[in-house]
Amino acid sequence: MGFYQFIKKQVITATLDEVWDFISSPANLKEITPKSMGFDITSGGLPAKMYPGMIIAYKVKPLAGIPVTWVTEITHIEEKRFFIDEQRIGPYAFWHHQHFIEKTEEGVLMTDIVSYKPPLLFLGSIANTLLIRRKLEHIFNYRKHVLEQKFPAR
After folding, report:
1. What pTM, to 2 d.p., does this model score?
2. Domain boundaries, position 110
3. Segment 107-149, tens digit of pLDDT
4. N or C end of the chain, less CB within 10 A?
5. What CA–CA distance (Å, rounded) separates 92 from 77?
């Protein structure tokens, strides 16, 4: 029964305001998620910006095209610094995702720290080694590519 952390960093050549405006909008989640994940937001009437306590529901197809309901709560926000989302319903036994941004000479450093525990006890640990970790790498590499296209080097 494993507990894991996944950390990814990316420098985005944009202003802090531009990056915050993009990442704090729930509507942009689909844009930065690989199409292969079958990601769709099912919550209706979401506001333009997230807020603490906000619940967002999705359908995702992480394995073999099988749809899974995923519900997260935005638990903490410090504007233009960080926000945290936590899974309330979904495929993981535990999911806590911290999104940090900070201004640098090159632009904005975005750091994601995902702490997670797969389901299914020891089978989840095996799944992490064989599949989950690679899937997370793929998702964050896709996001990096999308953000590089959206905010090209100046």
Report:
1. 0.92
2. 4-150
3. 999 999 999 999 887 887 888 788 899 999 999 999 999 999 9
4. C
5. 23
